[in-house]
Amino acid sequence: MTDVLEPAHVEHHDADHEEHHGATGILNWLTTTDHKVIGLSYTVTAVIMLVIGGFFAEIIRGQLASPNGHLVSLAQYNELFTMHGSVMIYLFAGPFAFGALANIIVPIQIGAPDMAFPRLNALSYWLYLTGAITMLMGFFTAGGAANFGWVGYVPLSNTLNSPGAGADLWIGGLLLTGFSAIFTGVNLCATIFYLRAPGMTMFRMPIFTWNMLVTAILILLAFPVLTAGLVMLYCDRHFGTHIFSVAGGGVPVLWQHIFWFWGHPEVYILALPFFGMVTEIIAVFSRKPVFGYKGMIFATLTIAALSLGVWAHHMFTTGVVLLPFFSIMSLLIAVPTGIKMFNWIGTMWRGEIWFSTAMLMAVGFVVTFLIGGLTGIYLASPPLDFFTHDTYFVVAHFHSVVMALVMGGLAGLYYWGPKFTGYLLNERLGKVQFWLLFLGTQLFTVPLYILGLEGMPRRMAVYPNDPQWKMLNDLSSLGAFIIGISTLLFVVNIIVSWKKYPAGDNPWDAHTLEWFTTSPPPHHNFYRLPQIRSERPTWDYNHPEHRTLHHGEHASDHDKQEATV
Amino acid sequence: MKVEAKILLGLGLFFGLMCLVYWNWSLENAGGVMMFAGMLLGFLPGGYYYWWSRRMAPRPEDNPNATQSDGAGVVGAFPGSSIFPFVMGMGAFFVVLALVFGIWLLVPGLALVVWSLLGGTAEGRRGGQH
Amino acid sequence: MPSFGAHPGVTDSSKSVYHLWQGFSVAAVIIGALAIGLILYAVLRYRRRSSDAIPAQHQYHLPLEILYTVVPILVVFGLFAATLVVENKETANPQTNVTVDVNAFQWGWQFTYPGTNALVYGQTTQSPEMVMPVDTNVHFNLTSTDVVHGFYVRAFNFSRYALPGVVNQFTIRATSTGTFFGQCTQLCGLYHSLMYFRVKVVTPAQYAQWLATFNNAADAVKAAAATKTTNEELASGVASKNTTTKFGR
User: What ipTM does the predicted assembly reach?
Assistant: First the structure.
């Protein structure tokens, strides 16, 4: 019934079945073009960036432990939150979302031997690494690192107000990481369009791959705009142009338009990969197909399209943007996001749910993203945004959403980690990590919502001496501290589980093509491929008697199906 | 290739409609220009894919009833290890540092970039390691 | 109806904003409770009984999917309509007799009243206090002479950017007297955390008296210049300056 054939995709030599000889050690790493190694490099670098960004966060919370804190100076505080945001968004979340797991998983999910442009893929990684180093170098310059917020608004970021090299290093780092992202976007599109295995039509691709395709298209639309803006900023700073300066006839708010035209799609570039991961994980651990597969794809495309038309909801208080247009477009994004939410519930509904760590993290993602997403709806209404903008309400909103993404990313690591390392992580430690992370996140964010509504603005090194404000800040700091503990626990888990629990090809009885090959996969990914007749080729191969049911069908209709194969 | 084309064309169309409404309503030029450019970014590759999809031979990955043997043969060239991505990365790094610390850094920067372009192209023609 | 964390504020539009907040919150609570309820039910009711059991492999239910596409669209349009009503009210430009020119700068505020001699100037913790009459439409012209700043008064449920090269105009009609705290909310450099100001709403009679204290323009400017202190000196006093102030609550 199913034919399993050796893919003649790449010329096979016997040597390919052994360890790949050639350069060893560090030279091997410097010259690799294997998407699995590159993806792993991205993962490790991104997690290091997460720890650095997290370290800045803990110092911020330390400063806010008292209303008139002296842990850091006012100047250092501005550097801290700028670099916390910059490291977390530009150097951790983005690269992790589209460079880490995507690199490792997408080619295997579609049955390809590697990404379409392996050397370009490697270049993307080196641009990321050097970009990260460039940005962080700012701390070692005389003027310190960039200190004008992760959004770099002009005129604050011009030469007059930010004269140091730290600002230019911030710009330079973003130029490098920007091109890294663009090249990854090209690679993902080309790979998904051109390297699918026979029978893997577009509507049989896994949801994670679909989401990475849409993410890649968003990257190609958005990142060049940021790059152009950064070049303009650099020119204003050093080549005497007046693009953004009033005195020279320029327009400061133009920076905001350009920045947010990138900035809003960016948050969906960050979110869509994790949506995709969570979708697959929920399906696998409910032992059901993804509910509403086509609806999910439609929702993802709609989110992407709408996300390109809402940028000025970050600028409602400028007084110079078309409020109703951006308001309705922003409110509408709730609709496809809601479709996804109900499809996740539908996937779990009447399933047989196994609460592995990956599944716990995935459900934690859904609940936390729901909370963060609902608060986003308030912000889409200009009158409500006018008094919450630039307060801790917004900070709480995006941290809710971002922590949800972190849970999604951890779900992905627990789920796919065994595939690309060959070893499982300890489940009991994972569950403790989950509960600390989930409860820590709620404890961290809820007080911040209240603080924002009480009137505490963001980016404040000191705040009024009010006992309620101090208590709320302390509760939030406690939550942040618990999140830090859970992160350490993750590192402990990796160390404790090192090479301890062999995974086998398919420890989760998962559905998609990557679970058909070995853990870790061989060079060029597959010794053999199954027949592909649905979006769950591995499930179909392992459970031919449990094919997907359409609406109205019953399990007893199976016999009729069998005969038509 | 039709689905791929339709995704990009659909995006271009969406951008076009948004641009029409937004630019006329707001008279704000930055957003209008960016949306217009986005529309072109959807139509250009999408149009090409659509045109190509009607001429190309059917591919096994677009055939819902394909078997693995349909995909037999060489799929593409996948250069194995190569030093040139790292070299170009280092070149780009120095070029960016030149923006910050001084023009002289363009010397090693551009040298590395040019070396990687030449070397990488030659490597590609050679076939490279697998 | 619970406040859901917001407050009615002291202007006529701040109350409308407050009601809008409550409306949005009701919708959010209903939708959130429904979704979380379904999730909790699913994770409790559908835990696996055995590790081999494979459930029926349903993949879609078109009528249900259409329902949860259409209903949210209707909800969104409802929220948008409510938004428009309040937004039009807040951005309206009615007849006003009192105008304040607000100039934000690094790191303080200057308030001048065109047509009068009044001028108020202060840096950081000096927290300059502008005065305005109650039950009167007051027109604000807001701008900045350097970087972007944010004019935020919690009691007004309102904020607006002070943009260099742009004059942002809005009208506020306060309905209660009192002194209300304001602060800069858009990062503007070193002393951003301390760019305080106050708004004192008084009766029209008291407002007229206050205006009269500014005998001539030159005196007002001299008085403002006299308050100029370095920002560092003001910042170092922040602990003592803030201990007793209760901000606009």
Answer: 0.95
For residue C127, give the 3-state DSSP assignment. coil
How many cross-chain Cβ pairs, A to B, lie less than 8 Å apart?
196
Residue at A463: amino acid letter? Y
Could you tell me if C84 and C106 lie in one domain? no
- Residue C158 domain boundaries: 98-236
Straight-line distance from the first to the last Cα atom of chain B, in angstroms, rounded to the nearest whole number: 29
Q: In a 3-state reduction of DSSP, which class is residue B87? A: helix
Q: Assign residue A58 a region: left if phi > 0, alpha if psi is -120 to 50, beta otherwise?
A: alpha
Residue among C193, C190, C188 at smallest CA distance from C241: C193
User: C248 lies in a domain?
Assistant: no
Distance from CA of A166 to the nearest CA of C (A): 15
- For residue C147, give the CATH number of its domain: 2.60.40.420
The stretches of A497-536 forming alpha helices (DSSP H) are none
Do C139 and C189 have their domain in common? yes
Q: What is the pLDDT of residues C207-220, one digit of tens each?
A: 999 999 987 778 78
- Using the beta-carbon criterion (under 8 Å), do A348 and C42 form an inter-chain contact? yes
Complete domains list, chain A, with CATH: 32-558 (1.20.210.10)
Q: Quote the pTM value.
A: 0.94
Q: Which residues contact A58 (CB under 8 A, 6 or more apart)?
A: A480, A481, A484
Instruction: Confirm whether C226 is domain-assigned.
Output: yes
Report yes or no: A202 at the B interface, CB cutoff 8 Å: yes
Residue C241 lies in a domain: no
Residues 6+ apart with CB under 8 A from C232: none
Of C91, C126, C149, the residue that ends a domain is C91
Contact between C55 and A455 using a beta-carbon 8 Å cutoff: no
